[in-house]
Each structure stands twice: as structure tokens, then as C-alpha cells.
Amino acid sequence: NVNNFESYPSAGSNAGNTFATIDGVSISGATTAGIMVNDNPLNTNGAKVFAEIKNLTVSGTATGILINGADANANIHNNTIIANAVGINVTGTSTSSTAGLTIASNTINFSSQLIATIPTTAILLNKVTGTAAATISSNTIAGSYYGYMVYNLNTLPKTTIAGGTITGVMQGVAAINIDPAGSGVRAPSTL
Questions:
Q1: I want to staple 24 with a disulfide (CB 3.0 to 4.6 A). Which of 45, 55, 141, 150 is the partner?
Q2: What confidence tens digit (pLDDT) does each residue in 118-150 have?
């Protein structure tokens, strides 16, 4: 967990800017996520969180890699992910010229398109906004219900999903206008 707020002592405390490189690690059986980069909403000093995530093997987790919050960003590349629900989940991130988002050259595989009745998603881009386009390219996706699911993706310039392959899925790219978390909130995406 790469984050900007420590929940100890019991009242917790702000952390400064946090930058980490996670390289060549094998992760299996994590309950929530193999890797989480989290801009904790309890942080009050505006600290940024950034991770270079590369050459990982993540398997048997609900979510392979989770990037969460406006000040959480990452370069995610050259990883192999076998997840149960979501391969890479990016939620609430804000991009800029100094805080980017790259998801490139990853291999994401699923053994099932559904968990019970819930569709699986290889790459979820959820509420990603900002003044720099995210770089989404050359990913290899197989076996999930959705290859990419996009909701409220609004960067300027526009983000492009480029290259790669998507096989054995129900829907390759789903650009939706209703919050996948089930809140019923509608919002547009710009691709």
C-alpha cells in the first residue's frame, strides 16, 4: 500500500509526498489488491502519491492493481495480472504534466467473465480527469467480461486507448455514462 496518510497512532497523521518503485515482485492471494496506490481522503496537506509499477506477477487477488484518489498516479507497465474481479482499477485520479497515468504493455487474464453475477473487468478507468491525457497502450487482455470499462474519463487533451489485443471477452471497450459503483450518477466520457 503506497499512501499519504498513516493510520497510527490511533488518530493518524499526514505523510509527505510518497514515491515508490515496485519492480519484479510476485504477489498472490491478496484479499483486496495486489498493489494499492491510495490518496487517502484523511490526508489534509495535499501530499501526492506516485508509484512506478513494473515487471510484476499478480494472481489470485480481487483486484490486481488499484490506483485511488485525485492525488494518486502511476506508471503501470510490463506486468502480468490474473485477477478475480478487476485487473487494473483507476478511480478518481487527476492527471497533469507532472502527475501522469500510464497503463502500457500489461498482460491481464481472467478465468471467468463473471464472479457470481458480477462482470469482470480487465482495465477500469473510473472518474479520471485532468490536464494531461493518460497513456493507455499495447495491453493484452483475455477472458474478462469487459476488456476496458470507461466511466467519466475526461482529460484534456483526450485520452486514447491504443494498440494491444482483446480476446475472449463479452465486450471489448465499454464507455458507459452511469457510475459502475451502482450510485446511479450519470456522467459523460471523452475519448
A1: 55
A2: 999 999 999 999 999 999 999 999 999 999 999
* Of residues 4, 69, 56, the one with CA closest to residue 30: 56
C-alpha to C-alpha distance for 187 and 178, rounded to whole angstroms: 6
Q: pTM to 2 decimals?
A: 0.93
Q: CA–CA separation, 39 vs 148, rounded Å? A: 23
Alpha carbon of 74 to those of 48, 80, 97, 154, 183: distances in Å? 11, 16, 13, 17, 26
Q: Is the dihedral of CA 147, 171, 70, 188 positive or negative?
A: positive
Cell 463473471 belongs to 114
Find where cell 474478462 sits.
Answer: 144
For residue range 145-175, list pLDDT tens digits in order. 999 999 999 999 999 999 999 999 999 999 9
Kindly calculate the radius of gyration of the chain based on its CA atoms and give it in whole angstroms: 16
